[in-house]
Predict the 3D structure of the following.
Amino acid sequence: MMLAISGGVGGAKLAAGLAQVLAPEDLTIAVNTGDDFVHLGLAISPDLDTVMYTLAGLNDTQRGWGLANETWSCMDSLRRLGAADWFQLGDRDLGTHLYRSHRLSQGATLTEVTAELCRAVGIRHAVVPMSDAPARTIIDTSEGELSFQDYFVRRHCEPAFRGIRFEGGAALGDRLDSVLRDGALKAIIFGPSNPILSIRPFLALPGFEAALRGRSVPAVAVSPIIGNAAVKGPLAKIMTEMGTPVSALEVARLYVGLIDAFVIDVVDAPQAPAIRDLGLDVIVTPALMVDAATRNALARTVIEYCSADRKAVRT
Amino acid sequence: MMLAISGGVGGAKLAAGLAQVLAPEDLTIAVNTGDDFVHLGLAISPDLDTVMYTLAGLNDTQRGWGLANETWSCMDSLRRLGAADWFQLGDRDLGTHLYRSHRLSQGATLTEVTAELCRAVGIRHAVVPMSDAPARTIIDTSEGELSFQDYFVRRHCEPAFRGIRFEGGAALGDRLDSVLRDGALKAIIFGPSNPILSIRPFLALPGFEAALRGRSVPAVAVSPIIGNAAVKGPLAKIMTEMGTPVSALEVARLYVGLIDAFVIDVVDAPQAPAIRDLGLDVIVTPALMVDAATRNALARTVIEYCSADRKAVRT
């Protein structure tokens, strides 16, 4: 069984590829919940929804988030009422938020609700939140601290990034914890998610980093930077604001000690020697997932690395 | 200033007529909140919404409830998720419920939220809930006690009516209380609402009936029964189940001691003498509101009665 670690869109794409290749019992997808927030009384889990909608094939590939064939009547209504309208709530998407909010208020855990939501849309692989307790990502910016969605959506990541911290007593989700301890676990795969905004929340969970460092199975991460630009999202801007060059190599640096191999796109092949010098295996492969074929191919490449005799691969 | 008492559709139509004739400062519309309930975590006030949507001209006249140009994407989504789908939530309508739920959770009163909602859709007359405290109508039926929406919507009023009671420590809403005490109050007008399901909740509010009986201004009620049938809703069925003939006269009986005059449709003119024998003035006029013209005409007739020198009218 393999464990995929995912943030939003990039991680979701790789997870969908992995789910095409691996049987339901052979894959667990753990998803960042640091972006979760309560908006107009609704419990919203943006990354869980992105993963779920992508796995179910219900996501809007044009817009890049939310559901396909979405309508916006409720949002029109909220706007007319003068309610906060900086976070777009599609009508179909609202069904998810209402269901989740209602079930959580009944005492269900986020893990349970996520399983119910997945089952309802036909997802057979396990999608689990990284934590059942609220883990709230706070971004320190040039304009002071902002809650994640304030920074990410309301302010479009415009304030300069200065740091990140996590509020709320988040603990490893039961399912993630048991997968990490499971003797059947064969690999840990980090999707091409933002290593700061989406992966750090995992590392901040008590026990996660120790489990990762103490693992006896291969761990691989896929670069979210291709050709010195982020495939999606504010990673390049954030790296620049941190004074770090925007490159796959610099992302690899963030993973040193945590993984065995780093996957980079063919355009970044020249960086492979420097990444190897960090003590990592490098997998050079087409890493831009533009359709089902490319994401499945990338998933297969990662799975092959994890399934191979590692000594043989490393040489 | 006149006070209109309203349940849902019928009362809302008359209120819209009254609002066409009377200036904003000359009309307050108090609305039944006994039908209010919390559904999927949303605070829903069906009668307030019906009155608000009708006054704003946003109501769906074909369907008879909810908003015109409504879409149902969220409902599709909820159905797919296996959520309760017996209460239809339109996407536009959801904006109202989300806004109300959110503001209530922030500590606003239902009176305040209703004023905000009304302002946002351009309503200038005061629409006030009968109570800010939850007043929950419970229907005793042949299948036991049911909460109002369980009886009314989920079960389509199918179980036989046996009685009605009210839960929750509902008290007169501040605005309704102050209007009842206001020296400027010139009349109290009961719309053609269900006297059992929509008007009794008002009478159950401590102080309402005493204020009504002790009033020094005319009070008028419009019959919801025309030609021995209910214009809309389960009133005729309920009266039959109570062993009462379905007639304007029998509705008038329920109002004895509470009003001065009862408005009946011209088709019910033969019942006028019997209603007069109850000690009520009778206003015989076209009472079926099929369009703006008929509802405005009915409103004008009621206002004329209330504005006239009552001694002259009574003779």
